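Changelog note: in this version the structure field was regenerated for every chain. One regenerated record is shown below for reference.
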Amino acid sequence: MTIINETLAVSTRRRCEMVDITRKVADIVVASGISDGEVVVYCPHTTAAITINENADPDVIHDILMTLEELLPQARAGYRHNEGNSDAHVKSSLLGASETVLVQGGRPMLGTWQGIFFCEFAGPRSRKVAVQVRG
């Protein structure tokens, strides 16, 4: 089995933001030379996440972020974590720290409208994303 590890740098400009990293992940897969296997995209931050969703209509991203904020507002009675980012920790846990995508023909096997997103919930920040291609 061949394993390729890479790190992506992601800079965010807002407190809550979803950054499409599909192209960067696909470039890593292509450069790996692995034609069939899987790619794991992992976020090593407790106030951010990785998700797969539609990347064709920006309104989808708006709706996701709006819904998360309605469900888990930044200021909420009862939060005990005193850094002011409890909502970001919960949002990160709900969406998850990683996604695994099959690789076929040297490319990530995503649906027509699917993209891979880095989800920021406590920005703006400079972040890292780990990408591992296995085949």
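Spot check on this record: The domain at 3-134 is CATH 2.60.120.460 (Jelly Rolls). The chain has one domain: 3-134.
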